[in-house]
Design goal:
Blueprint lengths: L3 H15 L4 E6 L5 E2 L3 H8 L4 E7 L2 E6 L4 E5 L4 E6 L9 E7 L4 E6 L5 E5 L1 H9 L12 H8 L6 H6 L9 H11 L12 H20 L40 E3 L7 E3 L6
Parallel strand pairs: 2-9
Antiparallel strand pairs: 1-7, 3-4, 4-5, 5-9, 6-8, 7-8, 10-11
Helix pairs in contact: 1-7, 4-7, 6-7
The structure holds a DNA duplex.
DNA sequence: ACGAGGTCCTGCGAGC
DNA sequence: TGCTCGCAGGACCTCG
């Protein structure tokens, strides 16, 4: 389940192998992950293009080409990007295989194929990214901006944190962890979060995302870095996946519910208010 | 306008 | 032991 730290790790891993390289050949093996373009058109329009930059936006890896177009990869649940020396075509879950001028291969693998790959013009990318909320790790993202993202509507604070239009890059794992760290009950309405709580939540969320990047993300099951390894932040999780185990802060048993948005929500009834 | 709920996809583990 | 079923969840879609 690649969220911001995982996608950031992937982008950092593959960037040095991609920037400056020319795409020699593309093979789409599972066409249903492509959005808005057919497999043959995708293959043809990428051949011969030079890669100018690799970045992350929300939970997307963005590969910018010399001509301004972007290949936007959204791994969602089980997608992974890997740069390797040799082709990995024997793997039945490979959806796209890219041959680079350096001799290396870029592979997009996705077991459940819930992921999505777009090829966007510069203008289409501008429209795409405009629909996403602020980046939590950018300098301009203050506690006040978080408070603004939580204001309005009557949705639960956890759902608001995960709403990509309000805030970019936070998914289920880090929403659970940040709310635990800030001592906020995930089912509370977002608009009831006070200024002081928003300040605390901002501090905890930013810290958790940064520390997770330092540990190359959280591998619960499927996530792999851009070099094919597991992340290491799972050992630092305080509530996610820890139902019925003692809360590290107050010792009460951690509760798993599906009351918020029918998603797995882990929280401590003792110290999250 | 906004929010709730269904849908996609496959592997895995619980339970019978 | 082998099968079925529900769950994992991000983001889009439809409906109210």
């Amino acid at each position: 389940m690649p969220e911001l730290p995982e996608v950031e790790t992937i982008a950092r891993d593959i960037r040095p192998h991609l920037v400056g390289a020319v795409i020699r050949g593309v093979r789409v093996l599972k066409a249903d992950i492509l959005r808005g373009i057919g497999p043959r058109a995708f293959e043809r329009s990428l051949a011969g293009c030079r890669i100018a930059a690799v970045s992350r936006r929300a939970k997307h890896v963005v590969i910018r080409l010399d001509d301004g177009r972007r290949v936007v990869i959204q791994p969602r649940m089980t997608g992974s990007l890997l740069v390797s020396e040799a082709p990995v075509t024997a793997d039945r879950y490979v959806t796209i295989a890219v041959r680079l001028s350096t001799g290396r291969q870029l592979t997009y693998r996705d077991v459940r194929r819930l992921g999505a790959v777009h090829l966007l013009s510069a203008e289409a990318w501008t429209r795409y990214t405009a629909r996403l909320g602020p980046e939590p790790l950018e300098a301009g993202f203050t506690a006040a901006r978080l408070a603004a993202a939580l204001a309005g509507g009557r949705l639960a604070v956890k759902k608001a944190l995960m709403d990509q239009r309000r805030l970019a890059g936070v998914g289920n794992i880090y929403a659970n962890e940040a709310l635990w760290s800030a001592g906020i009950d995930p089912s509370r309405l977002a608009r009831t979060v006070t200024t002081a709580e928003a300040r605390r939540l901002h501090h905890e969320l930013v810290g958790i995302l940064r520390r997770s990047i330092r540990r190359r993300g959280t591998t619960v099951r499927d996530y792999r870095t851009g070099t094919g390894e597991a992340g290491a932040y799972q050992s630092r999780l305080n509530v996610y996946g820890r139902a019925r185990r003692p809360c590290p802060r107050c010792g009460r048993r951690i509760v798993l519910t599906h009351a918020v948005d029918a998603r797995a929500t882990y929280f401590c009834p003792g110290c999250q208010r």
